[in-house]
Amino acid sequence: MPKSTSPTSIRKALISAVMLVTALCLSLSISISTYLDVKEQKQLIVNKLTILAEIIAFNAQISVLFDDRKTEEQRLKSFEKIPLIKNIHIYAIDEISNKAVFFTSFNARKTPPVPLRVDNIEQLQEPRVTEDYIELIKPVSYEGDIKGYVYIRGGLERLNAYINKKILIDILLTLFVLILVYFVAKRIQKRIADPIDQLSTLLQDVSKNHNYSARAPKTNITEVNMLSNSLNIMLTRTQNQIERHKNDKQEIKQLNQSLEEKVNQRTIALREANQELLTTLERMHQYQNQIVESEKMASLGQMVAGVAHEVNTPIGLGITGSTLLRDKLAEISLGFEQKTLTSNQLKLFIDNGIENLDLIYRNLNRAAELVSSFKKVAVNQDGEINSQINMHDLITNVMLSMRTELEIKAPKIALHCSAQLMIESKAGPLQQVLQQLLSNSIIHGFKDNQNNEIEISVERNESSLIINYYDNGIGVDKSVKKRIFDPFVTTKRGEGGSGLGMHLVYNLVTQALGGSVHFDDQNIEGTRFIITLPLTEASKA
Q: Whole-prediction pTM value?
Protein backbone atom coordinates (compact mmCIF):
# COMPACT_ATOMS: atom_id res chain seq x y z
CA MET A 1 0.00 0.00 0.00
CA PRO A 2 1.60 3.36 -1.02
CA LYS A 3 2.44 5.72 1.80
CA SER A 4 -0.05 8.61 2.10
CA THR A 5 1.32 12.17 2.06
CA SER A 6 -0.31 15.41 3.12
CA PRO A 7 -1.56 17.56 0.17
CA THR A 8 0.23 20.78 -0.72
CA SER A 9 -0.22 23.56 -3.28
CA ILE A 10 2.17 24.48 -6.07
CA ARG A 11 2.39 28.00 -4.69
CA LYS A 12 3.69 26.81 -1.32
CA ALA A 13 5.85 24.14 -2.95
CA LEU A 14 7.49 26.66 -5.31
CA ILE A 15 8.25 29.18 -2.56
CA SER A 16 9.43 26.46 -0.19
CA ALA A 17 11.69 24.90 -2.84
CA VAL A 18 13.26 28.24 -3.82
CA MET A 19 13.78 29.26 -0.20
CA LEU A 20 15.16 25.85 0.75
CA VAL A 21 17.61 25.67 -2.16
CA THR A 22 18.73 29.25 -1.51
CA ALA A 23 19.18 28.60 2.21
CA LEU A 24 21.10 25.39 1.58
CA CYS A 25 23.38 27.00 -1.01
CA LEU A 26 24.05 29.99 1.24
CA SER A 27 24.65 27.81 4.27
CA LEU A 28 27.00 25.51 2.35
CA SER A 29 28.88 28.40 0.77
CA ILE A 30 29.21 30.34 4.03
CA SER A 31 30.18 27.20 5.98
CA ILE A 32 32.91 26.26 3.51
CA SER A 33 34.16 29.85 3.34
CA THR A 34 34.20 30.19 7.13
CA TYR A 35 35.91 26.81 7.57
CA LEU A 36 38.65 27.62 5.04
CA ASP A 37 39.09 31.12 6.49
CA VAL A 38 39.38 29.83 10.07
CA LYS A 39 41.73 27.08 8.94
CA GLU A 40 43.92 29.64 7.15
CA GLN A 41 43.90 31.97 10.19
CA LYS A 42 44.89 29.08 12.47
CA GLN A 43 47.69 28.11 10.10
CA LEU A 44 48.93 31.70 10.07
CA ILE A 45 48.96 31.75 13.87
CA VAL A 46 50.78 28.40 13.94
CA ASN A 47 53.33 29.70 11.44
CA LYS A 48 53.79 32.89 13.46
CA LEU A 49 54.28 30.94 16.70
CA THR A 50 56.73 28.63 14.92
CA ILE A 51 58.79 31.58 13.70
CA LEU A 52 58.73 33.19 17.18
CA ALA A 53 59.79 29.86 18.76
CA GLU A 54 62.67 29.54 16.30
CA ILE A 55 63.75 33.13 17.05
CA ILE A 56 63.60 32.47 20.80
CA ALA A 57 65.55 29.23 20.33
CA PHE A 58 68.21 31.04 18.29
CA ASN A 59 68.55 33.84 20.87
CA ALA A 60 68.66 31.36 23.77
CA GLN A 61 71.68 29.42 22.45
CA ILE A 62 74.32 31.46 24.35
CA SER A 63 72.17 31.88 27.47
CA VAL A 64 71.57 28.14 27.80
CA LEU A 65 75.17 27.32 26.93
CA PHE A 66 76.61 29.65 29.63
CA ASP A 67 73.70 29.27 32.09
CA ASP A 68 72.84 33.01 31.85
CA ARG A 69 69.28 32.98 33.18
CA LYS A 70 69.00 36.74 33.90
CA THR A 71 69.86 37.78 30.36
CA GLU A 72 67.34 35.35 28.96
CA GLU A 73 64.61 36.49 31.38
CA GLN A 74 65.17 40.12 30.29
CA ARG A 75 64.99 39.07 26.66
CA LEU A 76 61.73 37.16 27.20
CA LYS A 77 60.04 40.20 28.83
CA SER A 78 60.15 41.90 25.45
CA PHE A 79 57.37 39.52 24.32
CA GLU A 80 54.81 41.23 26.62
CA LYS A 81 53.85 43.47 23.70
CA ILE A 82 52.82 40.45 21.60
CA PRO A 83 49.25 39.51 22.73
CA LEU A 84 49.48 36.16 20.93
CA ILE A 85 52.13 34.77 23.33
CA LYS A 86 50.81 33.58 26.72
CA ASN A 87 53.58 31.38 28.13
CA ILE A 88 57.20 30.59 27.26
CA HIS A 89 59.39 27.91 28.87
CA ILE A 90 63.06 27.32 28.16
CA TYR A 91 64.50 23.91 29.11
CA ALA A 92 68.17 23.04 29.27
CA ILE A 93 69.72 19.58 28.79
CA ASP A 94 71.26 18.33 32.03
CA GLU A 95 74.79 17.06 31.29
CA ILE A 96 74.57 14.29 33.90
CA SER A 97 71.10 12.83 33.26
CA ASN A 98 70.92 14.04 29.63
CA LYS A 99 67.30 15.05 30.30
CA ALA A 100 65.51 18.37 29.83
CA VAL A 101 65.27 20.51 33.00
CA PHE A 102 63.67 23.90 33.64
CA PHE A 103 65.87 26.89 32.73
CA THR A 104 63.61 29.98 32.71
CA SER A 105 60.08 31.02 31.74
CA PHE A 106 57.80 33.90 30.76
CA ASN A 107 54.06 34.36 31.53
CA ALA A 108 51.95 37.12 30.01
CA ARG A 109 49.95 39.44 32.23
CA LYS A 110 46.83 37.96 33.78
CA THR A 111 47.97 34.57 32.47
CA PRO A 112 48.60 31.80 35.02
CA PRO A 113 51.73 29.70 34.60
CA VAL A 114 51.43 26.29 32.96
CA PRO A 115 52.99 23.02 34.15
CA LEU A 116 56.35 21.98 32.73
CA ARG A 117 56.18 20.08 29.42
CA VAL A 118 59.47 18.19 29.72
CA ASP A 119 57.56 14.90 29.42
CA ASN A 120 55.76 16.01 26.25
CA ILE A 121 58.72 17.12 24.13
CA GLU A 122 58.25 14.40 21.52
CA GLN A 123 54.48 14.98 21.28
CA LEU A 124 54.82 18.78 20.92
CA GLN A 125 57.41 18.72 18.15
CA GLU A 126 54.35 19.19 15.93
CA PRO A 127 52.00 22.06 16.96
CA ARG A 128 49.08 21.01 19.17
CA VAL A 129 45.95 23.10 18.53
CA THR A 130 43.18 23.06 21.14
CA GLU A 131 40.01 25.10 21.47
CA ASP A 132 41.72 28.03 23.22
CA TYR A 133 45.49 27.54 22.82
CA ILE A 134 48.27 26.46 20.46
CA GLU A 135 51.36 24.73 21.93
CA LEU A 136 54.64 23.69 20.33
CA ILE A 137 58.27 22.95 21.23
CA LYS A 138 61.40 23.75 19.21
CA PRO A 139 64.93 22.57 19.99
CA VAL A 140 67.77 24.94 20.97
CA SER A 141 70.72 23.81 18.85
CA TYR A 142 74.33 24.87 18.97
CA GLU A 143 76.75 23.61 16.31
CA GLY A 144 74.43 20.67 15.50
CA ASP A 145 73.92 19.57 19.15
CA ILE A 146 70.64 20.07 21.03
CA LYS A 147 71.33 22.12 24.16
CA GLY A 148 67.72 22.64 25.22
CA TYR A 149 64.14 23.27 24.10
CA VAL A 150 61.77 26.25 23.81
CA TYR A 151 58.11 25.70 24.74
CA ILE A 152 55.69 28.42 23.56
CA ARG A 153 51.95 28.64 24.21
CA GLY A 154 49.77 31.07 22.26
CA GLY A 155 46.17 32.14 22.85
CA LEU A 156 43.31 32.08 20.33
CA GLU A 157 41.15 34.89 21.80
CA ARG A 158 41.48 37.12 18.73
CA LEU A 159 40.75 34.21 16.40
CA ASN A 160 37.59 33.33 18.36
CA ALA A 161 36.48 36.96 18.30
CA TYR A 162 37.11 37.07 14.55
CA ILE A 163 35.06 33.89 14.07
CA ASN A 164 32.11 35.27 16.09
CA LYS A 165 32.16 38.53 14.12
CA LYS A 166 32.29 36.70 10.79
CA ILE A 167 29.43 34.38 11.81
CA LEU A 168 27.27 37.39 12.76
CA ILE A 169 27.93 39.10 9.40
CA ASP A 170 27.17 35.84 7.54
CA ILE A 171 23.85 35.44 9.38
CA LEU A 172 22.77 38.99 8.56
CA LEU A 173 23.78 38.53 4.92
CA THR A 174 21.84 35.24 4.77
CA LEU A 175 18.67 36.84 6.19
CA PHE A 176 18.88 39.68 3.68
CA VAL A 177 19.30 37.31 0.72
CA LEU A 178 16.44 35.07 1.92
CA ILE A 179 14.06 38.02 2.22
CA LEU A 180 14.99 39.20 -1.27
CA VAL A 181 14.55 35.68 -2.69
CA TYR A 182 11.15 35.35 -0.97
CA PHE A 183 9.68 38.37 -2.76
CA VAL A 184 11.11 37.26 -6.12
CA ALA A 185 9.65 33.76 -5.62
CA LYS A 186 6.24 35.21 -4.77
CA ARG A 187 6.24 37.10 -8.08
CA ILE A 188 7.29 34.02 -10.05
CA GLN A 189 4.78 31.67 -8.40
CA LYS A 190 1.88 34.04 -9.12
CA ARG A 191 2.79 34.10 -12.80
CA ILE A 192 3.03 30.29 -12.97
CA ALA A 193 0.24 29.27 -10.59
CA ASP A 194 -2.62 31.35 -12.07
CA PRO A 195 -2.68 29.51 -15.48
CA ILE A 196 -2.43 26.21 -13.66
CA ASP A 197 -5.43 27.14 -11.52
CA GLN A 198 -7.40 27.78 -14.73
CA LEU A 199 -6.48 24.33 -16.04
CA SER A 200 -7.46 22.81 -12.69
CA THR A 201 -10.91 24.49 -12.84
CA LEU A 202 -11.41 23.15 -16.39
CA LEU A 203 -10.49 19.61 -15.35
CA GLN A 204 -12.89 19.75 -12.40
CA ASP A 205 -15.70 20.73 -14.76
CA VAL A 206 -14.85 17.86 -17.13
CA SER A 207 -14.65 15.39 -14.27
CA LYS A 208 -17.90 16.51 -12.63
CA ASN A 209 -20.13 17.17 -15.66
CA HIS A 210 -18.43 14.86 -18.25
CA ASN A 211 -18.16 17.90 -20.51
CA TYR A 212 -15.52 16.47 -22.89
CA SER A 213 -16.28 19.19 -25.47
CA ALA A 214 -14.59 21.84 -23.28
CA ARG A 215 -11.13 23.10 -24.34
CA ALA A 216 -8.25 24.79 -22.44
CA PRO A 217 -7.39 28.42 -23.40
CA LYS A 218 -3.90 29.61 -24.37
CA THR A 219 -1.62 31.45 -21.88
CA ASN A 220 1.62 33.43 -21.99
CA ILE A 221 3.70 30.52 -20.59
CA THR A 222 5.14 28.07 -23.11
CA GLU A 223 5.10 25.04 -20.80
CA VAL A 224 1.49 25.67 -19.75
CA ASN A 225 0.52 26.04 -23.44
CA MET A 226 2.10 22.65 -24.14
CA LEU A 227 0.10 21.20 -21.25
CA SER A 228 -3.10 22.84 -22.57
CA ASN A 229 -2.54 21.44 -26.07
CA SER A 230 -1.93 17.96 -24.65
CA LEU A 231 -5.07 18.28 -22.52
CA ASN A 232 -7.15 19.34 -25.52
CA ILE A 233 -5.84 16.40 -27.55
CA MET A 234 -6.66 14.08 -24.65
CA LEU A 235 -10.22 15.46 -24.40
CA THR A 236 -10.73 15.01 -28.15
CA ARG A 237 -9.46 11.44 -28.05
CA THR A 238 -11.52 10.68 -24.95
CA GLN A 239 -14.65 11.93 -26.67
CA ASN A 240 -13.95 9.74 -29.67
CA GLN A 241 -13.09 6.80 -27.41
CA ILE A 242 -16.41 7.03 -25.61
CA GLU A 243 -18.19 6.74 -28.93
CA ARG A 244 -16.16 3.70 -29.88
CA HIS A 245 -16.68 2.22 -26.43
CA LYS A 246 -20.42 2.15 -26.89
CA ASN A 247 -20.02 0.27 -30.15
CA ASP A 248 -17.57 -2.20 -28.63
CA LYS A 249 -19.83 -3.22 -25.75
CA GLN A 250 -22.12 -5.20 -28.00
CA GLU A 251 -19.23 -6.96 -29.65
CA ILE A 252 -17.75 -7.85 -26.24
CA LYS A 253 -21.00 -9.45 -25.14
CA GLN A 254 -20.99 -11.69 -28.20
CA LEU A 255 -17.32 -12.54 -27.72
CA ASN A 256 -17.90 -13.43 -24.05
CA GLN A 257 -20.60 -15.92 -25.00
CA SER A 258 -18.37 -17.68 -27.54
CA LEU A 259 -15.43 -17.55 -25.10
CA GLU A 260 -17.40 -19.35 -22.39
CA GLU A 261 -18.17 -22.17 -24.81
CA LYS A 262 -14.49 -22.46 -25.78
CA VAL A 263 -13.41 -22.44 -22.10
CA ASN A 264 -15.80 -25.29 -21.31
CA GLN A 265 -14.44 -27.32 -24.23
CA ARG A 266 -10.84 -26.66 -23.23
CA THR A 267 -11.58 -27.53 -19.60
CA ILE A 268 -12.96 -30.94 -20.60
CA ALA A 269 -9.91 -31.59 -22.82
CA LEU A 270 -7.52 -30.51 -20.06
CA ARG A 271 -9.22 -32.78 -17.53
CA GLU A 272 -8.81 -35.77 -19.85
CA ALA A 273 -5.14 -34.88 -20.47
CA ASN A 274 -4.50 -34.59 -16.72
CA GLN A 275 -6.02 -38.01 -16.15
CA GLU A 276 -3.74 -39.52 -18.80
CA LEU A 277 -0.75 -37.76 -17.25
CA LEU A 278 -1.56 -39.11 -13.78
CA THR A 279 -1.87 -42.63 -15.20
CA THR A 280 1.49 -42.29 -16.97
CA LEU A 281 3.13 -40.89 -13.83
CA GLU A 282 1.85 -43.80 -11.75
CA ARG A 283 3.33 -46.25 -14.25
CA MET A 284 6.65 -44.40 -14.14
CA HIS A 285 6.71 -44.72 -10.34
CA GLN A 286 6.09 -48.44 -10.65
CA TYR A 287 8.91 -48.81 -13.19
CA GLN A 288 11.20 -46.74 -11.00
CA ASN A 289 10.53 -48.91 -7.95
CA GLN A 290 11.19 -52.02 -10.02
CA ILE A 291 14.49 -50.61 -11.27
CA VAL A 292 15.56 -49.66 -7.73
CA GLU A 293 14.73 -53.12 -6.44
CA SER A 294 16.63 -54.69 -9.34
CA GLU A 295 19.70 -52.56 -8.57
CA LYS A 296 19.46 -53.46 -4.88
CA MET A 297 19.29 -57.17 -5.66
CA ALA A 298 22.18 -56.90 -8.14
CA SER A 299 24.32 -55.04 -5.59
CA LEU A 300 23.36 -57.49 -2.84
CA GLY A 301 24.20 -60.43 -5.11
CA GLN A 302 27.59 -58.96 -5.94
CA MET A 303 28.30 -58.31 -2.26
CA VAL A 304 27.31 -61.87 -1.28
CA ALA A 305 29.44 -63.29 -4.10
CA GLY A 306 32.38 -61.20 -2.93
CA VAL A 307 32.00 -62.29 0.70
CA ALA A 308 31.64 -65.92 -0.34
CA HIS A 309 34.67 -65.81 -2.60
CA GLU A 310 36.93 -64.00 -0.11
CA VAL A 311 35.96 -66.11 2.91
CA ASN A 312 35.62 -69.49 1.17
CA THR A 313 39.19 -69.49 -0.14
CA PRO A 314 41.05 -69.39 3.24
CA ILE A 315 38.42 -71.60 4.91
CA GLY A 316 38.65 -74.17 2.07
CA LEU A 317 42.44 -74.27 2.33
CA GLY A 318 42.16 -74.63 6.12
CA ILE A 319 39.73 -77.56 5.73
CA THR A 320 42.05 -79.21 3.16
CA GLY A 321 45.03 -78.86 5.50
CA SER A 322 43.13 -80.18 8.52
CA THR A 323 41.78 -83.18 6.47
CA LEU A 324 45.26 -84.04 5.25
CA LEU A 325 46.62 -83.75 8.76
CA ARG A 326 43.84 -86.05 10.06
CA ASP A 327 44.65 -88.71 7.39
CA LYS A 328 48.34 -88.58 8.28
CA LEU A 329 47.45 -88.86 11.96
CA ALA A 330 45.32 -91.98 11.22
CA GLU A 331 48.30 -93.60 9.42
CA ILE A 332 50.64 -92.85 12.34
CA SER A 333 48.06 -94.17 14.83
CA LEU A 334 47.67 -97.43 12.83
CA GLY A 335 51.45 -97.92 12.61
CA PHE A 336 51.74 -97.24 16.36
CA GLU A 337 49.05 -99.84 17.21
CA GLN A 338 50.63 -102.45 14.90
CA LYS A 339 54.08 -101.54 16.20
CA THR A 340 55.38 -100.92 12.65
CA LEU A 341 56.00 -97.20 13.16
CA THR A 342 59.52 -96.12 12.19
CA SER A 343 61.45 -93.01 13.13
CA ASN A 344 61.49 -91.82 9.52
CA GLN A 345 57.68 -92.11 9.33
CA LEU A 346 57.35 -90.15 12.61
CA LYS A 347 59.78 -87.44 11.44
CA LEU A 348 57.96 -87.15 8.09
CA PHE A 349 54.62 -86.88 9.96
CA ILE A 350 55.99 -84.12 12.21
CA ASP A 351 57.34 -82.13 9.23
CA ASN A 352 54.08 -82.51 7.30
CA GLY A 353 52.10 -81.64 10.43
CA ILE A 354 54.04 -78.40 10.91
CA GLU A 355 53.47 -77.42 7.28
CA ASN A 356 49.75 -78.24 7.50
CA LEU A 357 49.36 -76.32 10.75
CA ASP A 358 51.15 -73.32 9.22
CA LEU A 359 48.80 -73.53 6.24
CA ILE A 360 45.75 -73.73 8.53
CA TYR A 361 47.02 -70.83 10.66
CA ARG A 362 47.72 -68.55 7.69
CA ASN A 363 44.31 -69.13 6.11
CA LEU A 364 42.41 -68.79 9.39
CA ASN A 365 44.34 -65.56 10.03
CA ARG A 366 43.38 -64.38 6.52
CA ALA A 367 39.72 -65.14 7.26
CA ALA A 368 39.99 -63.22 10.55
CA GLU A 369 41.47 -60.22 8.70
CA LEU A 370 38.61 -60.32 6.19
CA VAL A 371 36.04 -60.40 9.00
CA SER A 372 37.87 -57.47 10.63
CA SER A 373 37.66 -55.54 7.34
CA PHE A 374 33.92 -56.31 7.12
CA LYS A 375 33.48 -54.95 10.64
CA LYS A 376 35.40 -51.76 9.76
CA VAL A 377 33.04 -51.15 6.85
CA ALA A 378 30.02 -51.22 9.14
CA VAL A 379 31.56 -49.78 12.31
CA ASN A 380 30.13 -46.47 13.62
CA GLN A 381 32.86 -43.86 13.97
CA ASP A 382 30.69 -41.26 15.72
CA GLY A 383 31.95 -42.26 19.16
CA GLU A 384 35.28 -40.49 18.74
CA ILE A 385 35.43 -36.95 20.12
CA ASN A 386 36.63 -34.03 18.02
CA SER A 387 40.05 -32.61 18.87
CA GLN A 388 42.48 -30.03 17.54
CA ILE A 389 44.56 -31.58 14.74
CA ASN A 390 47.64 -30.26 12.95
CA MET A 391 47.09 -31.57 9.41
CA HIS A 392 50.77 -31.40 8.42
CA ASP A 393 51.84 -33.43 11.46
CA LEU A 394 49.00 -35.97 11.02
CA ILE A 395 49.88 -36.67 7.35
CA THR A 396 53.60 -36.87 8.19
CA ASN A 397 52.92 -39.38 10.99
CA VAL A 398 50.78 -41.53 8.68
CA MET A 399 53.59 -41.64 6.10
CA LEU A 400 56.12 -42.56 8.82
CA SER A 401 53.88 -45.38 10.11
CA MET A 402 53.62 -46.81 6.55
CA ARG A 403 57.30 -46.38 5.73
CA THR A 404 57.83 -50.13 5.32
CA GLU A 405 54.93 -50.51 2.86
CA LEU A 406 55.96 -47.35 0.95
CA GLU A 407 59.54 -48.57 0.51
CA ILE A 408 58.27 -51.46 -1.66
CA LYS A 409 57.23 -49.14 -4.53
CA ALA A 410 59.42 -46.17 -3.42
CA PRO A 411 57.04 -43.35 -4.48
CA LYS A 412 58.15 -39.71 -4.34
CA ILE A 413 55.61 -38.01 -2.05
CA ALA A 414 54.99 -34.23 -2.39
CA LEU A 415 53.04 -32.75 0.54
CA HIS A 416 51.54 -29.27 0.07
CA CYS A 417 50.15 -28.32 3.47
CA SER A 418 50.84 -25.40 5.81
CA ALA A 419 52.70 -26.44 8.95
CA GLN A 420 50.31 -24.24 10.99
CA LEU A 421 47.04 -25.57 9.50
CA MET A 422 44.86 -26.56 12.49
CA ILE A 423 41.31 -27.96 12.37
CA GLU A 424 38.95 -29.55 14.85
CA SER A 425 37.99 -33.06 13.70
CA LYS A 426 38.40 -36.79 14.46
CA ALA A 427 42.01 -37.94 14.15
CA GLY A 428 41.27 -41.69 13.94
CA PRO A 429 39.04 -41.68 10.85
CA LEU A 430 41.33 -39.18 9.11
CA GLN A 431 44.35 -41.45 9.69
CA GLN A 432 42.45 -44.49 8.38
CA VAL A 433 41.38 -42.60 5.23
CA LEU A 434 44.95 -41.48 4.45
CA GLN A 435 46.38 -44.94 5.19
CA GLN A 436 43.84 -46.57 2.88
CA LEU A 437 44.56 -44.11 0.04
CA LEU A 438 48.32 -44.69 0.33
CA SER A 439 47.81 -48.46 0.50
CA ASN A 440 45.49 -48.32 -2.54
CA SER A 441 48.21 -46.51 -4.56
CA ILE A 442 50.87 -49.08 -3.55
CA ILE A 443 48.72 -52.16 -4.27
CA HIS A 444 46.66 -51.05 -7.28
CA GLY A 445 48.31 -47.92 -8.71
CA PHE A 446 52.01 -48.67 -9.12
CA LYS A 447 53.31 -51.60 -11.17
CA ASP A 448 56.96 -51.33 -10.11
CA ASN A 449 59.20 -49.01 -8.11
CA GLN A 450 60.17 -46.68 -10.98
CA ASN A 451 59.05 -43.01 -11.33
CA ASN A 452 56.19 -43.32 -8.84
CA GLU A 453 54.77 -40.06 -7.51
CA ILE A 454 52.12 -39.16 -4.93
CA GLU A 455 50.91 -35.59 -4.37
CA ILE A 456 48.82 -34.54 -1.35
CA SER A 457 47.48 -30.95 -1.22
CA VAL A 458 45.53 -29.59 1.76
CA GLU A 459 43.71 -26.26 1.58
CA ARG A 460 40.96 -24.58 3.59
CA ASN A 461 38.42 -21.90 2.87
CA GLU A 462 35.83 -20.19 5.06
CA SER A 463 33.61 -23.26 5.45
CA SER A 464 35.53 -26.43 4.55
CA LEU A 465 38.85 -28.30 4.37
CA ILE A 466 39.80 -29.75 0.96
CA ILE A 467 42.24 -32.68 0.63
CA ASN A 468 43.40 -33.36 -2.94
CA TYR A 469 45.09 -36.79 -3.30
CA TYR A 470 46.79 -37.77 -6.59
CA ASP A 471 49.08 -40.58 -7.79
CA ASN A 472 50.56 -41.08 -11.27
CA GLY A 473 49.85 -44.82 -11.34
CA ILE A 474 47.98 -46.86 -13.94
CA GLY A 475 44.64 -45.33 -12.97
CA VAL A 476 41.29 -47.07 -12.47
CA ASP A 477 39.80 -49.58 -14.90
CA LYS A 478 36.72 -48.34 -16.81
CA SER A 479 34.62 -51.21 -15.47
CA VAL A 480 35.30 -50.10 -11.89
CA LYS A 481 35.03 -46.29 -12.17
CA LYS A 482 31.26 -46.11 -11.73
CA ARG A 483 31.30 -48.53 -8.75
CA ILE A 484 34.61 -47.60 -7.10
CA PHE A 485 33.00 -46.89 -3.70
CA ASP A 486 30.78 -50.03 -3.73
CA PRO A 487 31.80 -52.91 -1.39
CA PHE A 488 33.77 -55.90 -2.80
CA VAL A 489 34.60 -54.09 -6.06
CA THR A 490 38.25 -54.85 -6.91
CA THR A 491 40.56 -55.65 -9.84
CA LYS A 492 42.83 -57.77 -7.61
CA ARG A 493 40.37 -60.58 -6.88
CA GLY A 494 42.44 -63.59 -5.77
CA GLU A 495 45.59 -61.42 -5.46
CA GLY A 496 45.04 -60.08 -1.94
CA GLY A 497 42.45 -57.41 -2.76
CA SER A 498 39.20 -57.58 -0.76
CA GLY A 499 37.37 -54.70 -2.49
CA LEU A 500 36.57 -53.00 0.83
CA GLY A 501 39.23 -50.26 0.89
CA MET A 502 37.46 -47.49 -1.00
CA HIS A 503 34.12 -48.43 0.52
CA LEU A 504 35.74 -47.98 3.94
CA VAL A 505 37.10 -44.57 2.82
CA TYR A 506 33.61 -43.54 1.65
CA ASN A 507 31.99 -44.61 4.96
CA LEU A 508 34.63 -42.87 7.09
CA VAL A 509 34.44 -39.58 5.16
CA THR A 510 30.65 -39.37 4.82
CA GLN A 511 29.55 -40.88 8.15
CA ALA A 512 32.35 -40.41 10.70
CA LEU A 513 33.67 -37.07 9.39
CA GLY A 514 30.45 -35.72 7.88
CA GLY A 515 32.11 -34.76 4.58
CA SER A 516 32.16 -35.91 0.96
CA VAL A 517 34.66 -37.78 -1.24
CA HIS A 518 34.78 -37.39 -5.03
CA PHE A 519 36.60 -39.58 -7.55
CA ASP A 520 37.79 -37.50 -10.52
CA ASP A 521 36.83 -39.83 -13.40
CA GLN A 522 37.80 -37.12 -15.93
CA ASN A 523 41.45 -37.37 -14.93
CA ILE A 524 43.39 -38.79 -17.92
CA GLU A 525 46.52 -40.00 -16.10
CA GLY A 526 46.76 -41.53 -12.65
CA THR A 527 44.10 -41.39 -9.96
CA ARG A 528 42.72 -38.37 -8.11
CA PHE A 529 40.42 -38.20 -5.07
CA ILE A 530 39.02 -34.93 -3.67
CA ILE A 531 37.86 -35.05 -0.03
CA THR A 532 35.83 -32.12 1.38
CA LEU A 533 35.34 -31.88 5.17
CA PRO A 534 33.13 -29.24 6.83
CA LEU A 535 34.80 -27.00 9.43
CA THR A 536 33.35 -26.68 12.92
CA GLU A 537 32.83 -23.29 14.54
CA ALA A 538 36.02 -23.80 16.59
CA SER A 539 38.01 -24.52 13.40
CA LYS A 540 36.65 -21.39 11.70
CA ALA A 541 37.66 -19.26 14.68
A: 0.36
